[in-house]
Design a protein that fits this description.
Layout (H helix, E strand, L loop, with lengths): L2 E11 L4 E10 L2 E6 L7 E4 L4 E4 L1 E6 L12 H10 L2 E6 L10 H11 L5 E7 L12 H7 L3 E3 L8 H12 L4 E5 L3 H4 L4 E2 L2 H6 L3 E2 L2 H17 L2 E5 L4 H12 L4 E6 H5 L21 H12 L5 E3 L7 H4 L16 H10 L5 H8 L1 H7 L14 E11 L18 E11 L2 E5 L1
Length: 422
């Protein structure tokens, strides 16, 4: 039997609102007791001055394995995850080959068994992500896929999306689709605004998100499917999501931490490391997204971890690849927004732990007796400067390089064992 006690720590469970000083006892990978009167037992980890929360669940992680291991392997992604307090990751299907059948789901799950994080799989919605040939969602669900996505490429055909949602509803499958209209966003590299016009960059209009979200919500209502409006980035789309939730439709929404912490000004003088998809938008959009996390309109905060080799980012802005690494940045960038007074700590942690667990059907994401002992201990007031060269990811592409941040992971615990200490 392995026993670990975390003592003298602030225990914060966002799902229940529990927030007290005390000890947490973990036995054989599960939480067996917590609170101010719990006795110390087994190995001891001093948590004085730290906050203990459930380990983070990142629902949107891209890796290069299989097929593009030069950008990221599962092993380097796992190391980046635990350094950021992330104990569960969902791998997007954009690998080579695409994760579009049960054998690949099983293969990657087995690979994940060797790693210090829980590896979950998002199956592709269509074969090869072609947008037309629907995959065997039922068989991939049986193989262990926890959600389904077409990655960065939305399902443009409404009839195909209707069939996907109807099919997925038979298995209670979570169907994620990017809220972007391809016709309006094709070839764009920035947010459509006065700034992009001055820089001579082709901009993506925010209305593109609203159009696609309206369509997918209508189809979810028609079919009874469960839809995740993935990677929202604009104020306009939030009104659509709030209206859907007020009607008790099975609709959820996600946002990347980049869009809560950065805005279009961060692309600066054609700074390609801040080129993202969706693009960084205006400050009013960023503030609206933070408010939507605080009030529960947005269910999930993701890192949108997208490793790109330096050679694909150090190019002229319009030619550079989109994306940023984020597993190590997810928690600290969120804590920085909490320190700034905009983002609520409980709402942020709920969107990184309990709500993802609920959507994916996982037992993790809470501090309660019998729950998996997957935990993060962090110092919410620790100042530091992000140095991309020190990141554990296989690629170092982050718009936070050189940025002053507040709060950082100190220990990460998986299955009752310390897997990372700063």
């Amino acid at each position: 039997m392995t026993v670990l006690t975390i003592e003298n720590v602030r225990i914060f469970d966002p799902a229940s609102g529990y927030d007290e000083m005390g000890n947490i006892v973990c036995e054989d990978g599960v939480i067996t007791g917590f609170g101010p009167h719990i006795d110390v037992n087994g190995d001891v980890l001093d948590g004085e001055g730290l906050i203990c929360a459930p380990g983070l669940i990142d629902m949107r992680v891209r890796t290069g394995e299989p097929g593009n291991e030069n950008s990221e392997t599962l092993a380097t992604a796992a190391q980046a995850a635990i350094a950021g307090g992330v104990t569960s990751i969902v791998i997007m299907p954009e690998t080579n080959p695409v994760i579009d059948d049960m054998s690949l789901v099983d293969f990657l799950k087995r690979r994940g068994d060797e790693l210090p994080v829980n590896v979950h799989i998002a199956g592709a919605l269509t074969k090869g992500l072609d947008g037309h040939s629907i995959t065997e969602i039922g068989l991939m669900s049986e193989a262990g896929a926890v959600m389904f996505s077409n990655g960065a490429t939305p399902i443009a055909n409404a009839q195909i999306m209707r069939r996907i949602l109807a099919y997925g509803s038979r298995f209670n499958a979570l169907i994620a689709n990017r809220c972007v209209s391809p016709e309006l966003s094709a070839g764009t590299v920035a947010h459509e605004s006065d700034l992009s016009a001055r820089l001579g960059l082709l901009g993506a209009p925010a209305i593109s998100e609203r159009i696609m979200a309206e369509r997918d919500i209508a189809l979810a209502e028609l079919t009874g499917g469960q839809v995740l409006i993935d990677l929202v980035s604009s104020e306009d789309v939030l009104r659509v999501i709030r209206r859907a939730k007020s009607r008790d439709l099975d609709v959820a929404a996600s946002v990347s931490i980049n869009h809560l912490a950065l805005n279009e000004l961060d692309i600066g003088d054609y700074r390609s490391f801040a080129k993202l998809d969706p693009p960084l938008r205006e400050e009013r959009d960023r503030q609206a997204l933070i408010a939507a996390v605080n009030d529960g309109t947005i269910d999930v905060i993701v890192s949108d971890h997208n490793p790109q080799p330096a050679g694909q980012k150090r190019l002229p802005y319009s030619e550079a690849a989109s994306g940023a690494v984020g597993l190590e940045i997810l928690l600290t960038a969120g804590l920085s927004q909490v320190a700034d007074g905009g983002l609520d700590l409980r709402a942020m942690l709920t969107a990184m732990t309990a709500r993802p667990a609920e959507l994916l059907g996982l037992k993790a994401g809470r501090i309660t007796e019998g729950a998996p002992a997957d935990l993060v201990l962090f110092d919410d007031g620790l100042p530091w400067v992000c140095d991309s060269d020190q990141l554990r990811s296989g690629s170092k592409n982050t718009p936070f390089d050189g940025r002053r941040l507040t709060g950082r992971t100190v220990h990460t615990i998986k299955d009752g064992r310390v897997v990372y200490s700063a």
